[in-house]
Write a structure and sequence with these properties.
Blueprint: E1 4-5, H1 7-14, H2 18-26, E2 33-34, E3 40-43, H3 44-53, H4 77-90, H5 93-107, H6 110-130, H7 136-156, E4 166-170, H8 178-190, E5 194-197, H9 204-214, E6 218-222, H10 229-242, E7 248-252, H11 258-261, E8 268-269, H12 273-283, H13 295-298, H14 302-306
Parallel strand pairs: 4-5, 4-6, 6-7, 7-8
Antiparallel strand pairs: 1-3, 2-3
Length: 316
């Protein structure tokens, strides 16, 4: 996967002349930078945005290093979800990548395709597995394909600025579910945050050290599986007591049922990535950035609006 392309490659992909693309670059219609040798280069993320904004069709996506059919099939989310589930079960990685990148071009927003295509498709595969309609190997292979696609999407998102807000996170010990965690990282990167994705199955002790050292604005915790609820809650409570006060803890994941959440302190519970995006933006809003904000002040009004649940006794 290319992360930047030349005007010639873009011209081939949309079948226009190279001189037209160079002119658009020089007019500022496409964000361009120059190599040390003075050649124009266009980050793939700006190419995708340009195509969407100016309604250009990708005729030869492979010129950009994208799968051959990208840009040519339906963009309806429900249809895309059904089709995505189908190609995941078939193990057709190229088709899966096409669907996702096509939606990325159409919507210019990875949270939409993660919340509304990838996640429901995986949920459906889980349901099929329960009734014997999908093999374990198909589920595992589907996860691996999704993970690779998420990493590719991450590559086309611009690097965050060094002054951007920092978020750190992962999943707790005994939680091996890496996809929701990877999606959280991608969501925050998409809105310009720096992120340290610490991965899965982290003991709370090491998370404590990580937040004390990095002092992020957000610590996210994705919780899809809890082995021992009492132990999880006790470890979590110790962790929140040691976390620096300016760190807003954002939690999410299918294992955080209402009963569990009632026993936890957090700044925000988000049941999808769109909610997290709103919450993070509310923290990074002008005037709040970098300052210590009580999480229950930072949440609303966006929180209420977005369906974000602010913790029972948000940390001060
Ligand atoms: C893939 C998978 C696995 C893989 C995970 C691979 C991996 N390394 O990630 C493995 C092989 C580990 C696995 C194992 C098991 N699994 Co499993 N698994 C799944 C499956 C099919 C997909 C999970 C997934 O990645 N979903 C996609 C994510 C993105 O969706 P999500 O978690 O809902 O996340 C969204 C939101 O919750 C939110 N979110 C999540 N986290 C966070 C965090 C923050 C901060 C925010 C803001 C938002 C947020 O945003 C996401 C995007 O919208 C699910 C089906 C399902 N319903 O999800 C079953 C499922 C979860 N598994 C199930 C089961 C039964 C098991 C096993 C017990 C099977 C077994 N007999 O061994 C084991 C348990 C292992 C364990 N210790 O947990 C059941 C759980 C049933 C239950 N009631 O608890 C499910 C629901 C399948 C089913 N329909 O029965 N599984």
């Amino acid at each position: 996967m290319k992360t930047q392309v030349s005007p010639k490659q873009l011209a081939r992909a949309i079948q226009v002349s190279e001189s037209s693309v160079k002119r658009w670059c020089d007019q500022g219609l496409i964000d361009t930078f120059r190599t040390a040798g003075g050649h124009r280069r266009i980050p793939l993320t700006h190419v995708l945005r340009f195509l969407r904004d100016h309604a250009y069709q990708l005729i030869r996506p492979e010129a950009l290093g994208l799968p051959p059919s990208t840009g040519q099939s339906a963009r309806d989310l429900n249809y895309a979800c059904t089709r995505f589930r189908h190609v995941l079960l078939e193990g057709d990685e190229t088709a899966a990548r096409s669907i996702i990148f096509e939606l990325f071009i159409a919507y210019d927003d990875p949270t939409v395709l993660m919340d509304r295509v990838m996640t429901p498709a995986l949920h459906e595969i889980g349901e099929l597995w329960v009734v014997g309609g999908a093999q374990v190997y198909q589920e595992r292979r589907a996860c691996e394909i999704c993970l690779r696609i998420l990493h590719e999407l991450r590559q086309v998102i611009p690097e965050p600025e060094s002054s951007a807000c920092l978020a750190v996170g992962g999943t707790p010990e005994c939680d091996p579910y890496y996809l929701p965690n990877t999606m959280v990282d991608l969501t925050l990167r998409w809105i310009g945050w720096r992120t340290h994705d610490l991965g899965v199955a982290l003991p709370f002790d090491t998370l404590t050290v990580a937040v004390q050292q990095a002092r992020p604005r957000i610590l996210w915790l994705s919780v899809s599986h809890i082995d021992d609820e009492a132990r999880f809650l006790a470890d979590y409570e110790r962790f929140t007591q040691k976390a620096p006060p300016e760190v807003a803890i954002a939690v999410g994941g299918r294992a955080l049922t209402e009963g569990v959440r009632q026993q936890m302190q957090y700044a925000s519970f988000c049941d999808n990535l769109r909610h997290l995006e709103r919450f993070a933006k509310s923290l990074a809003a002008p005037g709040l950035n970098g300052k210590q904000v009580a999480s229950d002040q930072a949440g609303p009004p966006q929180a209420a609006d977005a369906g974000i649940q602010v913790g029972r006794s948000a940390r001060q």
